[in-house]
Every structure is written in structure tokens, then in C-alpha cells.
């Protein structure tokens, strides 16, 4: 008799706890966003809700979750905007209007593995822009206006393997940007790159298995010999996009892998030799 009562009480208590748990994801799951739990991960979908500021939403009570904020009207990410979002492992911020990312904006996201910032208006990656994202493995930041990346912008991202940077306005990458970054995939299509040195760049890319370099105005000069040699050395195992020469005019439209070293870097007779010939 007593055992029965106890069992019933336990049953009621546990089902109440279950109800409470579902209700306790957080306030945003009851109103603004839709939340779905699957295999111990909660997906919080707040896409296209007209959200202008992050103060309009609030964190959920869950140990691991994905936060989808794609297609809103965010303009600025401010200091500590995500400080109470420690459970987020995937954060989608694509298709907003973000032009400003304050230092410390990503504080609290030390467990974040994937960050999507595509289709925004970000102009630079400063030393502190990505500060605190020490678990980040995947960064998507294509279709922005990035012209400038600080040498130290990635230096604390020791887990970063994928970086999607296509369709920005990069004319150069800083020296040592990928030192201690275990990149395997890098997409640089549609930028303004003319050259790609070995020292300070290719030398740190030994783990790369996919590199996309199309649609850049490559200057096929002596300085591109290192890239040509590097592409040849990895071409059998890696997926590599075409590198087409923009300049000089005589090589315009040619594919780097079909241009000989001699064409890239014609040896001119030195002046002294010429003087010797004519005298
Ligand atoms: C984060 O949570 C703490 C403790 O609940 C609270 O005092 C603080 O205002 C929150 N910060 C933000 C930015 O929401
Ligand atoms: C291409 O590189 C050569 C050799 O470094 C340089 O003289 C030339 O100005 C460069 N052209 C462009 C368009 O950058």
C-alpha cells in the first residue's frame, strides 16, 4: 500500500519535472522563437523575427543549444551581448546588417564551435574581434566587406579548421595569420588577392586539404612561383580551385598550372652582360 502511494507520488513528481523542464527552456521559447529538442541539443530558431538588438532575446536554460538569428536586423554586436549564452555551440548571425563588432562581443561563447556571420557588413577582423572564441572550429564570414585582417585576429583560435572568407575585399592577407591555426579548409574566392607568399602564409598551411582561390586578380609574376610549386605539391590530395592570371597582360586568362616558371619569371639578361655583348 505504502509502496504504491510512493510510486504514484514519484511518477507525478517526475512528470511534473518533465513539464517544468519543457516550460523552462526560457521565455523566448514561449514567445518570440521556436525551440526544439533533439538528441540532447536544443535548437532555438529566431530567424526573420525583425530583431534589432540582442536585448530583445534572452538566453535559454539548456546545457547545449544552437541559436539561429539569421535574417534579422542586427547592426551591432556589443560588449557582453552573449555573456549569458554559454551553452551555445552553433550561432547563426548571417543575413543581418552587422557592421560593428565591439571588443568582447563574443564573451561567454567559449564553447562555440561554429559561427556564421555571412552576408553582413563587416569591414575588418581586428585582433580582438573574435576574442574568447577558443573552441571555434568553423567560421563563415563570406559576403562581407572585409578589407583588413589583423595579424593576430586568429592567433587564439587553436581549434579553427574551416574558414570561409569568399566574396570579401581582401587584397592581402597579413603575414603569420595562420600560424598555430590548424586550418584544413580555406575559401578565398572572389577577393582581390594578387599574390600569396610562402613565407608567413603557405608555410603555415600544411594541414590544408581544400583551398579555393578562384576569382582573384592574380599577378602572375616571379612572386607567384612559390604558390605554383605549393599547389603542385598538394594537388594530388587536395581540392584546389583554379588560379587564373589577371596580370601581366601577356598571361591574362591563363591558368597558373599551365604557365611555366620561365613565363612567370622571365630571365632578363643583366645590363652588365648586355654591355659585355655590345662592346
Ligand atoms: C547575465 O546574467 C546575470 C545573472 O543572471 C545578470 O545579472 C546579467 O544582467 C546578465 N547579463 C546580460 C547582458 O544579460
Ligand atoms: C605584378 O608583380 C610585378 C613584380 O613584382 C610588379 O612589378 C607589378 O607591378 C605587379 N603588377 C600588379 C598589377 O600588381
Automatic annotation (TrEMBL):
Coiled coil: none
InterPro entries membership: Cys-rich_flank_reg_C (IPR000483), Leu-rich_rpt (IPR001611), Leu-rich_rpt_typical-subtyp (IPR003591), LRR_dom_sf (IPR032675)
Keyword Repeat applies: yes
Keyword field: Leucine-rich repeat, Membrane, Repeat, Signal, Transmembrane, Transmembrane helix
Compartments (UniProt record): Membrane
One Pfam family, short name: LRR_8
A biological-process GO annotation: positive regulation of synapse assembly
Domain LRRCT: from-to ranges: 216-266
GO cellular component, one term: membrane
Membrane topology type: Single-pass type I membrane protein
Main location as per UniProt: membrane
Secretion signal span: 1-21
UniProt KW Signal keyword: yes
Xref: PANTHER family: SLIT AND NTRK-LIKE PROTEIN 4-RELATED, SLIT AND NTRK-LIKE PROTEIN 5
Family: Belongs to the SLITRK family.
UniProt protein name: LRRCT domain-containing protein
Source organism of the structure: Champsocephalus gunnari
Amino acid at each position: 500500500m505504502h509502496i504504491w502511494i510512493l510510486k504514484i507520488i514519484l511518477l507525478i513528481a517526475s512528470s511534473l519535472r518533465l513539464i517544468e523542464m519543457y516550460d523552462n527552456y526560457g521565455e523566448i521559447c514561449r514567445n518570440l522563437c521556436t525551440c526544439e529538442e533533439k538528441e540532447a541539443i536544443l535548437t532555438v530558431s529566431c530567424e526573420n523575427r525583425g530583431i534589432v538588438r540582442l536585448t530583445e532575446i534572452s538566453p535559454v536554460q539548456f546545457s547545449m543549444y544552437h541559436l539561429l538569428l539569421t535574417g534579422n536586423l542586427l547592426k551591432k554586436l556589443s560588449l557582453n551581448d552573449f555573456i549569458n549564452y554559454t551553452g551555445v555551440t552553433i550561432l547563426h548571425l548571417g543575413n543581418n546588417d552587422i557592421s560593428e563588432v565591439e571588443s568582447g562581443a563574443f564573451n561567454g561563447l567559449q564553447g562555440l564551435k561554429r559561427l556564421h556571420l555571412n552576408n553582413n557588413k563587416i569591414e575588418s577582423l581586428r585582433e580582438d574581434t573574435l576574442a574568447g572564441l577558443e573552441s571555434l572550429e568553423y567560421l563563415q564570414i563570406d559576403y562581407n566587406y572585409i578589407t583588413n585582417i589583423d595579424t593576430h585576429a586568429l592567433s587564439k583560435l587553436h581549434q579553427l579548421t574551416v574558414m570561409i572568407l569568399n566574396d570579401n575585399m581582401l587584397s592581402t592577407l597579413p603575414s603569420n595569420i595562420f600560424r598555430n591555426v590548424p586550418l584544413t579548409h580555406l575559401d578565398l574566392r572572389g577577393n582581390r588577392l594578387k599574390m600569396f607568399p610562402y613565407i608567413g602564409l603557405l608555410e603555415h598551411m600544411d594541414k590544408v586539404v581544400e583551398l579555393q582561390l578562384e576569382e582573384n586578380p592574380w599577378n602572375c609574376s616571379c612572386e607567384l612561383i612559390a604558390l605554383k610549386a605549393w599547389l603542385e605539391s598538394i594537388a594530388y590530395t587536395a581540392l584546389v580551385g583554379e588560379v587564373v592570371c589577371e596580370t601581366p597582360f601577356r598571361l591574362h586568362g591563363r591558368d597558373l598550372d599551365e604557365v611555366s616558371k620561365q613565363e612567370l619569371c622571365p630571365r632578363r639578361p643583366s645590363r652588365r652582360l648586355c654591355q659585355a655583348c655590345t662592346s
